[in-house]
Amino acid sequence: MTAFTLRPLHLDALQQGLRMTLPGISHGILLGSGFILGIASSGASHRQILVAGTCALAVGALVTAARTHVATHARQESDEAEQLREHNTMDSTPGEERSVLAASYTRRGLNPGLAAKVAAELMEHDAFGFHTREELGFKPVRHSLPAARVWAAAANVAIGAALPLAVAASSRENLMLWVTIASLLTLAVLSIAVSRARHCAVMPGVMRIGMWSILTMALMTLLGSQLP
What we know:
By secondary structure, this protein is mainly alpha-helical. The chain has helices at 2-41, 46-92, 94-107, 112-136, 146-169, 175-197, 202-225. The protein contains 7 helices and no strands.
């Protein structure tokens, strides 16, 4: 019984970790390889290629940190405003809010009488807390450690962009070929890992990431080759 209970929790934690980590790494790989291939196809020197890859890593990480910071705090401010509105509504019309809470339990299968009783008892215990969780879907840990979330997102992109940069740094001959191969293989492996963790079909995910990766690299190479 214990193994049956723990396995879904373990899979949920793994899937959540993969969803938060792998997209950022994949984004970093595409960003770094795109910059490197674009600059390399323009006939730049090896040093210029490495400078472009380093800039892609830094810019990608900083832009991701800024975007995550803005989005996290905007969502937090929106939720706080919504909670304040809900608090004011509960103070002005407690009976109506109790009915709304009871209706939510009725929709879940309780009969109206029992739902009204449950709603009344819950609101006596922690009216605001239960109402925000049941009606608005807020959770106490929703905005935990926003700074850690920001820097983790930036680190994921930086880790991804470091891969094509490392390959470029170690490859003077056939640099574009090795960067392309290493990036595509890593992206395919990441896609397979996500699909297996979610118990989904592997090939559709690999095909999607492969299609967009090849398109991105081809366009960046084309753009670079057209530079004067």
